[in-house]
């Protein structure tokens, strides 16, 4: 359990660091404010708003995200399990949704 927790914390910290490291590059490339996105994501994880993220806050955040994703995957599924075909269909639907949003932004 301790190795898993350590790995999860390292992975989370690495993800936050990577987002910050590439922020300037992506801002120039896509015209997006990645620093503001990172700050917003950090605020989501920092449940008590003290400016620091604890292991418990990080685990709680990741668990909530996993539960939301699982609910989306199993929505309307009577058996409560996901087959490979269902996973593929879910992924395809999410990609289509992202493409539609991207196209809609281009229309404005």
Plain-language structure description:
By secondary structure, the protein is mainly α. The chain folds into 2 domains: 2-75, no CATH class; 78-108. It contains 5 helices and no strands. It has helices at 2-21, 23-30, 34-45, 55-74, 84-107. It is flat, with a radius of gyration of 17 Å. The model has no long low-confidence stretch (mean pLDDT 80).
Total number of strands: 0
Strand percentage, roughly? under 5%
Which structural class matches the secondary elements?
A: mainly alpha
- For this entry, what is the oligomeric state of its chains? single chain
Low-confidence stretches: none
Query: How would you spell out the order of helices and strands?
Result: HHHHH
Whole-number count of domains: 2
Distance between the termini: 49 Å
How many helix segments?
5
Described by strand count, sense and barrel closure, the largest sheet is: none
If you compute it from the alpha carbons, what radius of gyration comes out, rounded to the nearest whole angstrom? 17 Å
Q: Helicity, in percent? A: over 70%
Q: State mean pLDDT (0 to 100 scale).
A: 80
The coarse overall form would be flat
């Amino acid at each position: 359990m301790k190795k898993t927790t350590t790995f999860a914390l390292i992975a989370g910290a690495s993800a936050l660091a990577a987002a910050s490291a590439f922020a300037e590059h992506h801002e120039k490339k896509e015209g997006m404010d990645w620093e503001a996105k990172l700050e917003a994501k950090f605020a989501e994880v920092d449940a008590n708003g003290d400016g620091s993220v604890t292991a418990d806050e990080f685990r709680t955040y990741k668990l909530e995200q996993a539960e939301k994703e699982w609910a989306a995957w199993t929505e309307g599924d009577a058996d409560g399990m996901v087959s490979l075909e269902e996973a593929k269909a879910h992924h395809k639907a999410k990609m289509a949704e992202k493409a539609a949003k991207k196209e809609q932004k281009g229309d404005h």
